[in-house]
Amino acid sequence: MSNYQELKKLGLSDKEAKIYYTSLSRGPETAPNLAKLAEVVRPTTYVVIEGLIKKGLMSSTERGKKTYYVAESPEYLLSLLRIQKNDIEQKEKDLEKIIPELKTIANISGEKPNVRVFEGKEGLKAIREQLLKIKSKMIYSFAPLDKLYSLFTEAEHSEAMTKRRVGKKIKSKILYTTKKGPYLKPYDEMNLREAKYIPEKQFPFNSGIDIYDNIVSIYTFKGKIMGVIIENDDIAQTMKSIFELIWESR
User: Fold this and answer.
1) What's the pLDDT band for 94 if we cut at 50, 70, 90?
2) What's the rounded Cα separation, in Å, for the pair 108 and 210?
3) What mean pLDDT comes out for the span 154-180?
4) Whole-prediction pTM value?
Protein backbone atom coordinates (compact mmCIF):
# COMPACT_ATOMS: atom_id res chain seq x y z
CA MET A 1 0.00 0.00 0.00
CA SER A 2 1.66 3.21 -1.17
CA ASN A 3 -0.30 5.64 0.99
CA TYR A 4 -3.16 6.08 3.43
CA GLN A 5 -5.84 6.33 0.72
CA GLU A 6 -6.49 2.57 0.71
CA LEU A 7 -7.43 2.73 4.40
CA LYS A 8 -10.35 5.03 3.60
CA LYS A 9 -11.94 2.18 1.66
CA LEU A 10 -12.19 0.28 4.95
CA GLY A 11 -14.44 2.92 6.47
CA LEU A 12 -11.90 5.25 8.06
CA SER A 13 -12.30 8.98 7.61
CA ASP A 14 -9.61 10.93 5.80
CA LYS A 15 -8.01 12.17 9.03
CA GLU A 16 -8.35 8.77 10.74
CA ALA A 17 -6.57 7.13 7.81
CA LYS A 18 -3.79 9.75 7.91
CA ILE A 19 -3.19 9.41 11.65
CA TYR A 20 -3.34 5.59 11.68
CA TYR A 21 -1.06 5.25 8.65
CA THR A 22 1.45 7.73 10.07
CA SER A 23 1.44 6.03 13.47
CA LEU A 24 1.80 2.60 11.86
CA SER A 25 4.85 3.73 9.87
CA ARG A 26 6.49 5.74 12.67
CA GLY A 27 5.82 3.72 15.79
CA PRO A 28 5.11 5.39 19.16
CA GLU A 29 4.75 9.15 18.82
CA THR A 30 3.27 12.02 20.79
CA ALA A 31 0.07 13.60 19.54
CA PRO A 32 1.83 16.85 18.51
CA ASN A 33 4.34 14.89 16.42
CA LEU A 34 1.60 12.80 14.82
CA ALA A 35 -0.30 15.98 14.03
CA LYS A 36 2.74 17.47 12.33
CA LEU A 37 3.69 14.32 10.42
CA ALA A 38 0.12 13.59 9.28
CA GLU A 39 -0.55 17.26 8.49
CA VAL A 40 -3.62 17.37 10.73
CA VAL A 41 -4.22 20.28 13.12
CA ARG A 42 -3.35 19.43 16.71
CA PRO A 43 -6.81 19.82 18.36
CA THR A 44 -8.35 17.60 15.69
CA THR A 45 -5.56 15.03 16.12
CA TYR A 46 -6.53 14.42 19.75
CA VAL A 47 -10.17 13.84 18.74
CA VAL A 48 -9.15 11.49 15.92
CA ILE A 49 -6.80 9.51 18.15
CA GLU A 50 -9.55 9.10 20.76
CA GLY A 51 -11.85 7.73 18.05
CA LEU A 52 -9.19 5.30 16.80
CA ILE A 53 -8.59 4.08 20.35
CA LYS A 54 -12.32 3.39 20.74
CA LYS A 55 -12.20 1.38 17.53
CA GLY A 56 -9.27 -0.64 18.89
CA LEU A 57 -6.88 0.64 16.24
CA MET A 58 -4.59 2.67 18.53
CA SER A 59 -3.40 2.56 22.11
CA SER A 60 -1.45 4.87 24.41
CA THR A 61 1.46 4.52 26.81
CA GLU A 62 3.09 6.85 29.32
CA ARG A 63 6.78 7.63 29.11
CA GLY A 64 7.82 9.98 31.83
CA LYS A 65 5.52 12.95 31.62
CA LYS A 66 4.59 12.38 27.97
CA THR A 67 1.85 10.27 26.40
CA TYR A 68 2.79 8.29 23.33
CA TYR A 69 0.33 6.78 20.88
CA VAL A 70 0.90 3.75 18.72
CA ALA A 71 -1.11 2.03 15.98
CA GLU A 72 -2.27 -1.47 16.75
CA SER A 73 -1.54 -4.36 14.39
CA PRO A 74 -3.18 -4.06 10.95
CA GLU A 75 -4.95 -7.32 11.77
CA TYR A 76 -7.28 -5.22 13.93
CA LEU A 77 -8.62 -3.73 10.71
CA LEU A 78 -10.26 -7.10 10.06
CA SER A 79 -12.14 -6.74 13.32
CA LEU A 80 -13.30 -3.31 12.17
CA LEU A 81 -14.64 -4.79 8.95
CA ARG A 82 -16.43 -7.55 10.85
CA ILE A 83 -18.09 -4.96 13.09
CA GLN A 84 -19.19 -3.02 10.01
CA LYS A 85 -20.47 -6.22 8.42
CA ASN A 86 -22.51 -7.10 11.50
CA ASP A 87 -23.85 -3.55 11.64
CA ILE A 88 -24.95 -3.72 8.00
CA GLU A 89 -26.60 -7.11 8.53
CA GLN A 90 -28.52 -5.73 11.50
CA LYS A 91 -29.60 -2.66 9.53
CA GLU A 92 -30.75 -4.96 6.73
CA LYS A 93 -32.91 -6.93 9.18
CA ASP A 94 -34.34 -3.70 10.62
CA LEU A 95 -35.14 -2.44 7.12
CA GLU A 96 -36.91 -5.67 6.17
CA LYS A 97 -39.21 -5.19 9.16
CA ILE A 98 -40.32 -1.70 8.12
CA ILE A 99 -40.50 -2.21 4.32
CA PRO A 100 -44.24 -3.18 4.44
CA GLU A 101 -45.03 0.06 6.29
CA LEU A 102 -42.93 2.11 3.86
CA LYS A 103 -44.75 0.52 0.91
CA THR A 104 -48.07 1.47 2.51
CA ILE A 105 -46.91 5.06 2.85
CA ALA A 106 -45.76 5.06 -0.80
CA ASN A 107 -49.17 3.88 -1.98
CA ILE A 108 -51.29 6.46 -0.18
CA SER A 109 -53.50 8.79 -2.20
CA GLY A 110 -51.57 11.60 -3.85
CA GLU A 111 -48.37 9.59 -4.21
CA LYS A 112 -45.65 11.01 -6.42
CA PRO A 113 -45.63 9.56 -9.92
CA ASN A 114 -42.83 7.15 -10.71
CA VAL A 115 -41.01 8.71 -13.66
CA ARG A 116 -38.28 7.03 -15.71
CA VAL A 117 -36.39 8.48 -18.67
CA PHE A 118 -34.93 6.43 -21.52
CA GLU A 119 -32.58 7.90 -24.11
CA GLY A 120 -31.89 7.04 -27.73
CA LYS A 121 -33.36 4.46 -30.08
CA GLU A 122 -32.37 1.65 -27.71
CA GLY A 123 -34.24 3.42 -24.92
CA LEU A 124 -37.43 3.42 -26.99
CA LYS A 125 -36.95 -0.29 -27.62
CA ALA A 126 -36.71 -0.85 -23.87
CA ILE A 127 -40.01 0.99 -23.35
CA ARG A 128 -41.57 -1.15 -26.08
CA GLU A 129 -40.53 -4.30 -24.21
CA GLN A 130 -42.28 -3.08 -21.08
CA LEU A 131 -45.38 -2.20 -23.07
CA LEU A 132 -45.62 -5.79 -24.28
CA LYS A 133 -45.91 -6.91 -20.64
CA ILE A 134 -49.24 -5.09 -20.34
CA LYS A 135 -51.86 -6.56 -17.98
CA SER A 136 -55.03 -4.86 -19.23
CA LYS A 137 -54.65 -6.11 -22.86
CA MET A 138 -55.56 -2.70 -24.33
CA ILE A 139 -53.26 0.09 -25.52
CA TYR A 140 -54.48 3.61 -26.32
CA SER A 141 -52.08 5.48 -28.61
CA PHE A 142 -51.50 8.91 -30.10
CA ALA A 143 -49.33 7.98 -33.08
CA PRO A 144 -47.48 10.38 -35.44
CA LEU A 145 -46.79 7.63 -37.97
CA ASP A 146 -44.48 9.61 -40.25
CA LYS A 147 -42.21 10.49 -37.34
CA LEU A 148 -42.38 6.93 -35.97
CA TYR A 149 -41.48 5.40 -39.34
CA SER A 150 -38.60 7.85 -39.79
CA LEU A 151 -36.92 6.15 -36.82
CA PHE A 152 -38.29 2.61 -37.16
CA THR A 153 -39.36 1.57 -40.63
CA GLU A 154 -42.92 0.35 -41.02
CA ALA A 155 -41.60 -3.19 -41.52
CA GLU A 156 -39.43 -2.95 -38.38
CA HIS A 157 -42.33 -1.66 -36.32
CA SER A 158 -44.63 -4.38 -37.61
CA GLU A 159 -42.13 -7.12 -36.84
CA ALA A 160 -40.97 -5.86 -33.46
CA MET A 161 -44.25 -4.49 -32.15
CA THR A 162 -47.46 -5.22 -34.05
CA LYS A 163 -46.91 -8.94 -34.62
CA ARG A 164 -45.74 -9.51 -31.06
CA ARG A 165 -48.66 -7.50 -29.68
CA VAL A 166 -51.13 -9.56 -31.69
CA GLY A 167 -49.37 -12.72 -30.57
CA LYS A 168 -50.05 -11.72 -26.98
CA LYS A 169 -53.69 -10.87 -27.87
CA ILE A 170 -53.20 -7.22 -26.90
CA LYS A 171 -55.71 -4.88 -28.56
CA SER A 172 -54.92 -1.38 -29.76
CA LYS A 173 -56.86 1.83 -30.38
CA ILE A 174 -54.89 4.55 -32.14
CA LEU A 175 -55.43 8.15 -33.11
CA TYR A 176 -52.88 8.72 -35.87
CA THR A 177 -51.50 11.42 -38.13
CA THR A 178 -49.71 10.92 -41.44
CA LYS A 179 -49.19 12.71 -44.72
CA LYS A 180 -50.69 9.65 -46.43
CA GLY A 181 -54.12 10.55 -45.13
CA PRO A 182 -56.60 8.03 -43.62
CA TYR A 183 -55.03 4.85 -44.99
CA LEU A 184 -55.43 2.49 -42.01
CA LYS A 185 -58.56 0.36 -41.72
CA PRO A 186 -60.97 1.75 -39.09
CA TYR A 187 -61.13 -1.78 -37.74
CA ASP A 188 -58.39 -4.31 -38.51
CA GLU A 189 -59.45 -7.62 -37.01
CA MET A 190 -56.23 -9.40 -37.98
CA ASN A 191 -54.09 -6.83 -36.19
CA LEU A 192 -56.54 -6.37 -33.28
CA ARG A 193 -56.54 -2.65 -34.02
CA GLU A 194 -59.04 0.18 -34.25
CA ALA A 195 -57.77 3.36 -35.85
CA LYS A 196 -58.98 6.90 -36.46
CA TYR A 197 -57.19 9.47 -38.61
CA ILE A 198 -56.41 12.95 -37.32
CA PRO A 199 -55.55 15.62 -39.93
CA GLU A 200 -51.93 16.53 -39.33
CA LYS A 201 -52.24 20.12 -40.56
CA GLN A 202 -55.08 20.76 -38.14
CA PHE A 203 -53.83 18.76 -35.14
CA PRO A 204 -50.10 17.92 -35.47
CA PHE A 205 -48.68 15.26 -33.15
CA ASN A 206 -45.01 15.95 -32.47
CA SER A 207 -44.65 13.14 -29.96
CA GLY A 208 -46.12 9.69 -29.56
CA ILE A 209 -48.09 8.67 -26.48
CA ASP A 210 -49.14 5.22 -25.27
CA ILE A 211 -51.56 4.71 -22.38
CA TYR A 212 -51.94 1.31 -20.75
CA ASP A 213 -52.48 -0.11 -17.27
CA ASN A 214 -51.43 2.73 -14.92
CA ILE A 215 -48.72 3.95 -17.29
CA VAL A 216 -48.32 6.80 -19.76
CA SER A 217 -45.35 6.52 -22.14
CA ILE A 218 -44.28 9.57 -24.16
CA TYR A 219 -41.81 9.43 -27.06
CA THR A 220 -39.83 11.82 -29.24
CA PHE A 221 -38.60 10.51 -32.59
CA LYS A 222 -36.23 13.24 -33.81
CA GLY A 223 -33.56 15.50 -32.38
CA LYS A 224 -32.76 14.20 -28.92
CA ILE A 225 -34.58 10.86 -29.11
CA MET A 226 -36.00 9.89 -25.77
CA GLY A 227 -38.92 8.30 -23.98
CA VAL A 228 -40.52 8.93 -20.61
CA ILE A 229 -42.56 6.45 -18.59
CA ILE A 230 -44.93 7.96 -16.02
CA GLU A 231 -46.44 5.42 -13.66
CA ASN A 232 -49.45 6.82 -11.81
CA ASP A 233 -53.10 5.75 -11.65
CA ASP A 234 -54.60 9.25 -11.79
CA ILE A 235 -52.43 10.46 -14.67
CA ALA A 236 -53.04 7.31 -16.71
CA GLN A 237 -56.81 7.47 -16.13
CA THR A 238 -56.95 11.16 -17.08
CA MET A 239 -54.97 10.56 -20.28
CA LYS A 240 -57.25 7.66 -21.16
CA SER A 241 -60.29 9.92 -20.66
CA ILE A 242 -58.75 12.55 -22.95
CA PHE A 243 -58.12 9.87 -25.56
CA GLU A 244 -61.69 8.59 -25.36
CA LEU A 245 -63.06 12.14 -25.55
CA ILE A 246 -61.19 12.72 -28.81
CA TRP A 247 -62.07 9.24 -30.08
CA GLU A 248 -65.81 9.79 -29.56
CA SER A 249 -65.67 13.19 -31.24
CA ARG A 250 -64.17 11.91 -34.51
Assistant:
1) confident
2) 25
3) 93
4) 0.56
